[in-house]
Amino acid sequence: MNIFITGIAGFLGSNLADYYIKKGFKVAGCDNLVGGDLDNVSKEVTFHKAECEDLAIMKEIIKGSDIVIHAAAYAHENLSVFSPSLIARNIINGSTSVFSASISNKVKRIVFCSSMARYGNIEQPFDEDDIPNPIDPYGISKLAAEKILINLCDTYNVEYNIAVPHNIIGVKQKYDDPFRNVASIMINLMLQDRQPIIYGDGEQKRSFSDVDDCIYCIDKLATDPNIKSEVVNIGPDDNFITINELFSKLSNQLQFNKGAINYKDRINEVKLANCSDKKAKKIMNFRKSISLDESLTKMINFIKEKGPKEFKYNYELEIINEKTPKTWLEKKF
């Protein structure tokens, strides 16, 4: 089986590649290395440095693939409010290019990694049958890409599934990006004896998913012949904790005795975001295998081994005004 993974040097993509190599698949993939790291990529992977938006290149490098998993994304939900053109171009244009190249190469199945941002600020826990109402350009772009995928696959009779991850954490997650990955940011700061930053009152609640549990679900969506044309939340629906509680857990594990610094709320940030895993349990027998505390321990050990890093502001802010977070303008991380 030949599998192609976009974003293969990133967090989710590289972990997927490791999984499929162990299963004996022939694995290839691409990454532009803006949010990924070549150190994440196994030597057994056929790697291409490429932009997903480049259709001609995507058509060439996807040749011979049976399954395409589109995991590449500038996964920056709040940043999209201030850099909407960057995010929309990456998510909508990049995804459409991957889908078009895949269909042109007659792949059997496409799996698109969407985001719980598709749901927006609706009643939670989010269920796959809910009507999405995204509230930021990132969520809007992900939902648009889903609709394009469904339309194209129905038109050309190509199998597809859509995975909806939520707050994935684990080994290989980028921890020097100031715009995303709250747990990784906090660990990186604490290991430098620097106080983490919490937006608002810290009572935003999220459910965190270990990457290994998510890989189980994505594999089912990619290879199970009985699961087709589905949108599925992936990851457990427990571990529903506040950002303050996350900070406390990390402080306890790292024996960090300083408090956090509070800044005002970020605009268009959903307060409560939790995805139901009932469908995943029903159609793929999903069961959580790793606790939140175990996931955080693995992350801490990984970042300790790699060493703390300075934060890299790799993305330009397109809209700068009184609503732009000072933490980004003044590079507080």
Summarize, please:
The protein is an alpha/beta fold and 333 residues long. Helix content is 38%, strand content 16%.
What does it look like?
By secondary structure, this protein is an alpha/beta fold. It folds into two domains: 2-169 and 209-234, NAD(P)-binding Rossmann-like Domain (Rossmann fold, 3-Layer(aba) Sandwich), CATH 3.40.50; 182-206 and 238-272 and 289-329, UDP-galactose 4-epimerase, domain 1 (Alpha-Beta Complex). The protein is built from eleven helices and 14 strands. The chain has helices at residues 11-22, 55-61, 79-82, 84-104, 137-156, 182-191, 211-223, 243-254, 278-284, 292-306, 326-329; strands at 2-6, 26-31, 46-49, 67-70, 109-113, 159-165, 168-169, 197-199, 205-207, 209-210, 230-234, 240-242, 261-263, 272-273. The strands form four sheets. It has a seven-stranded parallel β-sheet with strand order 3-2-1-4-5-6-11, with helices on both faces. Strand 1, helix 1 (11-22) and strand 2 form a beta-alpha-beta unit. Helix 2 (55-61) packs across helix 4 and helix 6 runs parallel beside helix 8. The longest helix has 21 residues, at 84-104. The protein is globular and about 55 Å long. The mean pLDDT is 96.
